[in-house]
Structures are given as C-alpha cells and as structure tokens.
Amino acid sequence: MIEQDDAPLGVKHLIDALIDREGGYINHPADRGGATCFGITETVARAHGYGGTMRDLPRGDAEAIYRRLYWLRPRFDQVAKRTPRLAAELFDTGANMGPAVAATFVQRALTALNRSGRDYPDLVPDGRIGDTTLAALDRFLSVRGASGGETVLLRAMEALQGERYLRLAERRPANEAFLYGWLANRIGSR
After folding, report:
1. In whole angstroms, what is the distance from residue 108 CA to residue 25 CA?
2. What's the pTM?
3. Which of 187, 75, 185, 69 is nearest to 128 (CA)?
4. How confident is the model at residue 190 (pLDDT cuts 50, 70, 90)?
5. Structural element, H or E, at residue 36
6. Which residues lie closer than 8 Å to 56 by C-beta, 6 or more apart?
7. C-alpha dihedral over 11, 13, 17, 22, to 10 degrees?
C-alpha cells in the first residue's frame, strides 16, 4: 500500500524521488518563485516555520512540508488507497504546480470521462479532493476497470499538465528556460 514508506510508490519514496529531481539550493534568475531548496520555495518554508537561509533548509523540513502540504492536506493519500499511480502523479503535479491545480486536472478529466453524466455526476473543478471527487473516482474505476481507467486518467492528467507548461512558456518567455526540463522530467515519468 502506498502509505508504507518503503513501498515503490510509498509517500517516502515519492518525496525522495521528488527531492532528487528538484536538487538542493537553486536561485534561478528567471524563476518567479525565487530561491528554493529541495524544490521548496522560501515563501512556503517561511510559512511553515523555517527561519534560516534557504541554502541551509534541512532535508527533513522539506520532507515534512511535502508530506503535509502536498500529500495529506490535498487528500492525495485517499486517492492512493484507490490508485497509487494516479496519487503519485497528483503529488508530483501538485508539488510543481500547486495541489489545487493537480486536483482540478483530475476533476476535469473525470467529468470529461463520465459519458455525459451517465456514470456519475459532473464535478465542480474546485481544486479539492473531497468525498464527491473520491466517489466519482471510485465509480470511474469500477466502470472503466482499475488498470485501464487508471492509465486513461494518467494520460489525461499529463495532457493537461503539458498544455499548461506550454501556455506558461508562451505567456512568459522567461519560462522557456524551464520548459524543456518540465516536459522531460514531469510528463510520462510514471
């Protein structure tokens, strides 16, 4: 089960893989988020009690922030009980774009795949994984099959994510500095 830290898609493994991708301290001049360490922005670190320099952010603090803000709070742990691969995608997308964006992507995909409401009602894309979204996910996986349905949802998520990356680079040319890496490291990796 994904809750086990040593499981291949366990939250500890997901956090470790994310931190490895993000690297240590970075202060890229084109990044509007400013200085980061392990992918955690200074604003997020400060909001969660870290007062030191970003270069010195302890890895354990970053891990705790990822677990709390990007796994438990958006309820991706509840998605993991149903489909670990989708939860892993939500976690990674949420860490990169914000958990509400990731949740909105899956809500939009579930609504578009509900066969005009025959399988379950349309979802309000509010960016929150609540009981209604989880019920829709359960029904989708029941109707479409756990394996096939999961694969289709992952493809929809990645399509939405890729389109957003392209749009970000088109709207702000400075983001072109990040586009290749986003597409190479965030799309198709699960």
Report:
1. 34
2. 0.89
3. 75
4. low
5. strand 36-37
6. 37
7. 40
